[in-house]
Amino acid sequence: MTKHYDQAYFERWYRDPALKEHAIGGTARLARKVAMAVATAEYHLERPIRSVLDIGCGEGAWRAPLLKLRPKLSYLGFDSSQYAIERYGRKRNLHFAQFGDFEYLRPCAPVDLLVCSDVMHYLDTRELDRGLPALAELCHGVAFLETFTREDGIDGDTHGFKRRPAKFYRQRLQSVGLMPLGSHLWLSPVHQDDTAALERPA
């Protein structure tokens, strides 16, 4: 059965009162993720972030908490949900694209913070591999790439979830030049020479 990221999907997984703060889009949980990603990027950049690219942005949920922290930053989002783009595209600067389109798509200069949250574990391997190099090429600071594996206890939307081992993602992300920082955060190749020994993976 084809998965549809329509209004019903977002209502179910992001706004269902029964899920409360355990929902994917729980406001407190999201605010903590955003704060962590922003702080980590600024730690490595040694300045406030100015630009964010959100690949697989859905309705642009990251935009508001990002602007709350950094009101002047530039936010740009891409998603494959026709519903999300038609409803929120103009207001939130969201545009239509499949992940695999980033094999060729370079919509902006490399950004301070790249977000690709809760996306990669739903992609077929061929599409994933097509778009992966863009994550490193479009990130000039830190990437938040929230991804779950078959080693994780998964709650929530398991329809279409690809039960891959963690090493599958580690190998692919490191092969395009990203360095793991922990907590779903990855450092751009641009800044890796500036890290201390104990900031790097063993």
From TrEMBL:
The keyword Transferase applies. GO terms for molecular function: methyltransferase activity. Residues 53-138 form the Methyltransferase type domain. The keyword RNA-binding does not apply. Pfam families: Methyltransf_12. Keywords: Methyltransferase, Transferase. One of its GO terms (biological process) is methylation. It comes from the Bacteria. This is Class I SAM-dependent methyltransferase.
